[in-house]
Amino acid sequence: MLDIRFATARSASGAVAVVVPSGSPSAALDLLKLGPADLDECATFLEDVEHSGSAGSVHILPRPGRKPSRLLFVGIGDGDESGWRAAGAALARKARAETSLRVLVPQDTPPEAVRGLAEGLWLASYRFRLADDAEPDPLRRVTVALPGGGAPTDSLERALDQARAVVTATVLARDLTNMPSDRKTPAWFARQVVKAAAGVPGLTVEVREPAYLAAQGFNAILAVGRGATTERGPRLVELSWRPRGAKRHVVLVGKGITFDTGGICIKPLSGMKLMRKDMGGAAAVIGATLAAAAMRLPVRVTALTPLAENALSGDSMRPGDVVTHYGGLTSEILNTDAEGRLVLGDAMAYAVRRLRPDVMIDLATLTGAQGVALGKQTAAMYSHSDALAGALAAAAAASGESVWRMPLSEDYAAELGGDLTDLVNSTDIGAGSLLAALYLREFTGSVRDSWAHFDMSSPAWSDANDGELTKGATGWGVRTLTRWLEATAA
Questions:
Q1: How does DSSP classify residue 134?
Q2: Is 70 assigned a catalytic role?
Q3: Paired sense of beta strands 256-260 and 235-241, if any
Q4: Rounded to the nearest 5 degrees, what angle is found at the Cα of 319, between the Cα atoms of 314 and 320?
Q5: Beta strands in 162-315 (DSSP E)
Q6: Rounded to the nearest 10 degrees, what angle do helices 280-294 and 478-489 cross at?
Q7: Which residues of the chain have pLDDT under 50?
Q8: Which end of the chain is more exposed for a tag (fewer CB within 10 A), N or C?
């Protein structure tokens, strides 16, 4: 990650970025301590390029032989957090070839602006590298400078720390999701969680292996994972952040299919190429829990990740098979490619029975129907609670992620009943995202009215660099969940 810190001394060498509010390019000139001729040059340049100050717009003025040698004028739009985030992301790309960058900001810059700027810089500069010795980008340090080299307030320093905690967790989620599935077995994922939590006070990890899952009745997780080799067998990871004095317990459940062939109902190549991302929900809930611990939020958080590889072999589950979930509900398998809801059902039933949460939220790269309805950037959200849905939507908006609340229509619930079982895991009537949510609702028990489900299959992956997103895994959900946990803990 970039080294981002507040400047402790003024320096005019190298590249300098200046923030430009929407419609007020002259405000940027007030931040520059340059002579009249240089200021006139800058004013003329801004006029010539018609810099509007729109969020994320950048124009570069080269100044060979002078200090600073390059000026980057970056728009922050209306100056809200999203505008500053867009500015940070744009600078990360435009200044990638620099070795260092100084960003001049106004004296009255609010904490949320610093948080947005830092998040944009860090997230847009992310690169997934398989090799530890891969060549890093030249840009290694960014300093944020207040006028006159003034010292930042405690609130500004805290905002930078918050951004660092969230981005560190998002980067981990991206790394986990980007990892090719020849390496990313359920056991490998579990080891990464143990490694990330090691030495953090208040964090504990339990990894449940197949023998435990069989003894305790996690039969759906086992059914999905039984087509894989023993070395790639299923796991259930429980990561807990339990601070003293916490009065509210939130359980986050994330789908963790480390690769999804579709099983016997096999996917075509076009549907299988990116299935290393099918554990994006698990990565997000782990990341959010780690962020809560890093920020020392006074709310108890437990992340559950049911992990399995949905592989194709002679022992794979078949259409028509019946599984008994943890807690006793039964499901008939009508589509082996609707496996995510099966593993989530086991984990959610366990959460309700054993962990007794006040709120339960699940995240899953669950259905292609989500992308059909809402596209690549917006996750589908389902909840019976207006208050919870509203708070999560507000957290998503503040964090720079996008959600849209979808209806939990009772008209379709009867379609999930089976002839042999309580539930069937698939139907042929359409409404795929909604029916998956209704299926999961059957495992919410006493927290049905304090539960939310995110179907985030498409937003988990970006096909191109876009704002703070880089091509590949997005880590979707870490920012939304963490921002919501912050508000919950306030």
A1: P
A2: no
A3: unpaired
A4: 115
A5: 203-208, 235-241, 249-254, 256-260, 300-310
A6: 40
A7: none
A8: C
Q: Which two tokens stand for residue 302?
A: 């437990």
Catalytic one among 300, 341, 441, 479?
341
CA 287 – CA 471 distance, rounded (Å) = 19
CA-to-CA distance for 122 and 125, rounded, in angstroms?
5
> Which listed residue (63, 140, 267, 448) is catalytic?
267
Nearest in space to 196 (alpha carbons), one of 68, 334, 290: 290
**41: part of which helix (H) or strand (E)?**
helix 36-48
Question: What is the SS3 string spanning 433-487?
Answer: HHHHHHHHHCCCHHHHHHEEEEECCCCCEECCCECCECCEECCCCHHHHHHHHHH
Alpha carbons 267 and 65: distance in angstroms, whole number: 59
Q: How far is CA 90 from the centre of its chain?
A: 20
Checking DSSP bridges between strand 141-145 and strand 3-6, what pairing results, if any? parallel
Q: Which residues contact 314 (CB under 8 A, 6 or more apart)?
A: none
- What is the distance between the alpha carbons of residues 417 and 438, in angstroms, rounded to a whole number? 11
Nearest-Å Rg of the Cα atoms of the chain is 24
| CA 84/CA 112 separation, integer angstroms | 9
Per-residue tokens: 270: 């076009």
Token output for 1: 């990650």
pLDDT tens, 271-308?
Answer: 999 999 999 999 999 999 999 999 999 999 999 999 99
Quote the pTM value.
Answer: 0.97
Name every residue whose Cβ is closer than 8 Å to that of residue 110 and which is 6 or more positions away in sequence: none
Per-residue pLDDT at 11:
59
Active site residue 247: no
Total Cβ atoms within 10 A of residue 295: 19
How many residues does the structure list for the chain? Answer: 490
Mean pLDDT of the chain: 96
Q: Exposure string (b/e) for 47-62, b if CB count within 10 Å is 16 or more?
A: eeeebebebbbbbbbe
Q: Which two tokens stand for residue 315?
A: 């022992």
CA pair distance 43, 47, nearest whole angstrom: 6
The pLDDT value recorded for residue 446 is 97
pLDDT digits (tens, 9 = 90+) for 11-48: 556 799 999 999 888 888 989 989 999 999 999 999 99
Residue with tokens 């300098």: 16
What pLDDT is recorded for position 133?
65
Provide the terminal-to-terminal Cα distance of the chain, rounded to the nearest Å: 28
Distance in angstroms (rounded) separating the CA atoms of residues 78 and 163: 20
Contact 455, 370 (CB under 8 A): yes
